[in-house]
Amino acid sequence: MEEYIKVAMLLDFYGQLLTERQYQILDLYYNSDYSLSEIASMLNISRQGVYDGVKKGKHTLNEFEGKLGLAKRFSRHEENLKDILSKLRKLKPCRDSEDEQIINECIGELQSVLKEL
User: Residue 25: in which H helix or E strand, if any?
Assistant: First the structure.
């Protein structure tokens, strides 16, 4: 399951850099959960052709990630934001209502950013 999530994430970042056919095959396989046989039938190619497309496309995505590192950087930023949010939530209520308001605004903004990710 972890591999599916990783490839789906890489597809989000680098999918448009693949050929249209590679993107189509990987999208159907990883995002839409079609089997190799179902994709082969839909695209009028052999099951082996789909398998090769998945293998080559996945390899290409991993090469892009190895060179650019966007997905790794994204994951790191997401974890850092979650950590900051967690620390803010652990703060005890302040005596100064202005500080309390700033903290609550920061929590709200961080929650919004995380939802958009």
Answer: helix 20-26
Where is average pLDDT lowest: 13-17, 59-63, 98-102?
98-102
What is the C-alpha separation between 29 and 14, in angstroms, rounded? 16
- pTM (2 d.p.): 0.75
- Asked if 15 contacts 1 with a C-beta cutoff of 8 angstroms, the reply is no
CB 61 within 8 A of CB 11: yes
The interaxial angle of helices 36-43 and 47-68, nearest 10 deg, is 100
Q: Is residue 34 a contact partner of residue 3, using CB atoms and an 8 Å limit?
A: no
Q: Do residues 26 and 11 lie in contact, with contact meaning Cβ atoms separated by under 8 Å?
A: yes
Confidence of residue 69 (pLDDT cuts 50, 70, 90): very high
CB 51 within 8 A of CB 13: no
pLDDT of residue 117: 64
The size of the chain, in residues, is 117
